[in-house]
Write a structure and sequence with these properties.
Pfam families: N6-adenineMlase. This protein is globular. Helices cover about 35% and strands about 20% of the residues. It is of the alpha/beta class. The longest helix is centred in the first third of the chain and has 23 residues, at about 15-35. Helix 3 crosses helix 4. The chain has helices at about 1-5, 15-35, 60-75, 85-95, 150-165, 175-185, and strands at about 80-85, 100-105, 120, 140-145, 165-175, 185-190, 205.
C-alpha cells in the first residue's frame, strides 16, 4: 500500500529546513542582484570558488595588477595564456577592446561559458592540449598551479614551457620558491598577491623577465 511507504521518507529537522530555505533565498537574492546590476559575466566572483578544486580567487586589486602586468609584458597584439588563473582572465576580459588576445586553460568546466577561449586543462596530463594550441605561441603565460606540491608545479611547468615564447609569471606559495627556480627559472617579486579570502599560506609571484612587479 502506498500510505505505508511514507514512513520511510527521511524528514528534515525544522532547523535544517530553515537553514536550507535561507540558503536558497540568499542565492535568489544574489542572482537577482546580478540581473539588476547588468551583470558582467567576466567579473571576479561571477563563477564562485570551488574549494574542493582548490580554487581561491584573487582580490580585485591583485587581479587588476596582474592583468595590467601581463598586458604590458605581452606587448601590442600580444597573446596571453592564463593557466589555472581564471580571476586574471576575467579581469583581462573586462578590458574589452584592448589590443591583445587571451586563452583560459582550466579544469573547471564551468568556465566553458567563455566559449572558444576556454580550453579544458588537467595538470596531470600537461601536454594533452588541442592541436591548434601551437608550441611557443603565447607572448606570456601566467599560471597559478592549484596545489602547493612539487609534482603539481613540475607538471604545470611542462605546460607553461610548451606554451610560452619565453615570458612566465607564476603565482604560488612562498614555500615553492626553490622548486619554482628549479623547474621554471623564475625569481620571486616584491609584489605580494592577495586573495578575496585570506589564505593560510603566504603567496608570492615569480617571473623570469624584468617586470613591473618589483
Amino acid at each position: 500500500k502506498m500510505d505505508d511507504d511514507d514512513d520511510d521518507i527521511p524528514q528534515l529537522s525544522s532547523h535544517t529546513l530553515a537553514a536550507l530555505q535561507e540558503f536558497y533565498l540568499e542565492q535568489q537574492q544574489r542572482e537577482g542582484m546580478k540581473t539588476s546590476q547588468g551583470f558582467n559575466q567576466y567579473s571576479i566572483g561571477s563563477i564562485e570558488e570551488d574549494w574542493q578544486l582548490s580554487q581561491f580567487w584573487y582580490s580585485d586589486e591583485t587581479a587588476s595588477c596582474l592583468a595590467n602586468e601581463v598586458v604590458v609584458a605581452a606587448g601590442k597584439g600580444g597573446r596571453i595564456a592564463c593557466v589555472s588563473a581564471p580571476s586574471v582572465y576575467q579581469k583581462l576580459k573586462e578590458q574589452d577592446g584592448k589590443d591583445f588576445s587571451v586563452c583560459i586553460l582550466e579544469y573547471d568546466r564551468r568556465f566553458s561559458v567563455y566559449g572558444e577561449e576556454f580550453i579544458f586543462y588537467d595538470y596531470n596530463h600537461p601536454l594533452n592540449l588541442p592541436e591548434n594550441l601551437l608550441p611557443h605561441s603565447f607572448d606570456i603565460v601566467i599560471a597559478d598551479p592549484p596545489y602547493l606540491s612539487e609534482e603539481c608545479l613540475k607538471k604545470t611547468a611542462e605546460t607553461i614551457k610548451y606554451l610560452t615564447k619565453g615570458k612566465i609569471l607564476l603565482c604560488t606559495g612562498a614555500i615553492m620558491e626553490e622548486q619554482a627556480a628549479k623547474h621554471l627559472g623564475v625569481k620571486i617579486c616584491k609584489f605580494i598577491p592577495k586573495h578575496s579570502r585570506n589564505l593560510a599560506n603566504e603567496f608570492r609571484c615569480y617571473v623570469n623577465y624584468a617586470s613591473g612587479l618589483d
